[in-house]
């Protein structure tokens, strides 16, 4: 299992706007292609104006195929401009759990 951890630093004060449009439109498009959403978070303490969402994939090939399908979806292409200008910095990590991690067991 591989976990994609996407972290976005948003423009100051735009977390409510971002979360609203993702909840109303974006998340269902993403889930229809990306599969297993582990969590979607926003910061309140520490680094502010931050969004983190985590997706689980069976392999890196699985991730690549799913992301390609998402990018090809016209609904996603229409949705992207609604969040693109709210994001100042984007970071992406691919993490693999340790064998003793609660989410590290084979699925």
UniProtKB/TrEMBL annotation:
Q: Which domain of life is it from?
A: Bacteria
What region holds the NIPSNAP domain?
Answer: 3-102
Xref: SUPFAM superfamilies: Dimeric alpha+beta barrel
What family classification does the UniProt entry report for this protein?
A: Belongs to the NipSnap family.
Task: Extract the PANTHER family matched here.
Answer: NIPSNAP-RELATED (PTHR21017), PROTEIN NIPSNAP (PTHR21017:SF17)
- What protein name applies here? NIPSNAP family protein
